[in-house]
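Summary for the steering committee. The consortium agreed at its last meeting that each partner would contribute one worked example illustrating the joint modelling workflow. Our contribution is presented below. We chose a case with several input lines so that the handling of multiple components could be demonstrated. No manual editing was applied between input and output; the record is shown as generated.
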Amino acid sequence: MTDIWTEALRGLQPRLGRETYDLWLRPLELVTATETRVQLRAPSQFMKEWFENHYKAAVLDEMTTRGHAPPAIEIEVAIEMTPEAEPAAVPAPAAPSVAVSAPIPVPPVRAPPPTGLANRYRFDTFITGASNELAASAAAAVAEEPGQRFNPLLLYGGVGLGKTHLLHAVGHAIHDAHPEKRIVYLSAERFMNEFISAVRYNQFDEFRQRYREESDVLLVDDIQFIAGRDRTMDEFFHVFNALYEAGKQIMVTADRTPSDMQGMEERLTSRLNWGLVADVKAPDLETRVAILRQKAEQDRIGIPDDVCVHLATLVRSNVRELEGALVRVSTFAALKGRPITEAFVREVLGEAAEAERHAAPITVEAVQKTVAQYFSVRISDLKGPRRHKGIARPRMIAMFLSRELTGSSFPEIGMRFGGKDHSTVINACKRMTAISLEDPELRATISSLRTQLVAPSR
Ligand code: ADP
Ligand code: MG
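What follows is the complete predicted structure of the assembly.
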């Protein structure tokens, strides 16, 4: 008979999803389980607390559903072997005959605070929901145990969904908890510019030292930027290896998965996939409302709850737009001396949003342009006959999205793709639907393109 712990985990697994299960539940080792008491061993204090705060209730709930009275769950922490905790292997030398002064205890060296981090992008200002839970929890784990858990950690997703926020939050949290760690944060673009100028002005040694030797944590925003820039990729590759081999934490963000980055070297793509790749999706209504409430509170904007909900219903695409909308509404309200009501929100945003929607329906051309940009292929290739996979796949995606978003008929879409037969379009749509059912990466790609098209960022 299986014990009550294992039974509950089995029941929970499909609901939690494999990734979450593998990350947070599998590492807990069962010591003993009876009907009244379950003893576990967690690999770290962090894992223990994370379980208690996030999953314990669900486990107890599952046990109750299966007809058990909720047992006491006790978790011990496996002893973490940090260098200081290791027992001295060598016996202490005999007392020297000549008196020497006792060694002066060396205070832990404080690294200078990381530069470039926005003060308000912290974990406590980040709202989690289903759309970003995996990303946020992995980021928290990295912050807690840099270099130990997920290395590298890569977060990807569309614009304005909180990737940069989480990257900064990790920087702040590591600095707070491990002040001795040297944290380097920068955008991939800045990395490239610094690299170029280091080469040009003969300061390559300093550059190498700063990134390969003098950083304990490297946080790089928008890594997709270096795709196709050969020398920068090469340099980043060496930085990556040096840090990785030294057990230093690397975390990057991107607007797409590594394998979707056209022009990214294979060896880099594979390294970026070594650790954990977690996506950030557009937040659901509940999360959007929570984000608005927090932001309103932070900026002391008086906005009733029902108006928050209304606003969150109007602005769906991404969090940056949502914040922008709140600022616009509150600024207008202050200017006109009016309270923020539902009608007022509609007046300020609703009509503008409606007008925009009517003025700019999504066209097949817009789909082609967005898809071509995303995959770095030419629009003429999408319309052309080439069957090479690097083009055929984007073409099928473009056809699929055209059908979904523009309301055009199959023959019409075929015509706009260089006069192809409607059956080609039908087949493309069928294939994309079938493949995306099995392939989460393709789903993510399509969803990110859809977001870009439905809500182009201005
Ligand atoms: P990205 O890097 O994914 O394009 P950002 O991290 O720059 O997005 O986020 C855009 C804005 O939205 C920032 O002001 C950020 O603080 C805010 N934001 C995004 N997601 C959340 C969230 N879950 N909770 C609170 N604020 C968020
Ligand atoms: Mg960003």
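The first helix runs from residue 4 to 16. The pocket of magnesium ion (ligand 2) is lined by residues 163-164, 221 (CB under 6 Å).
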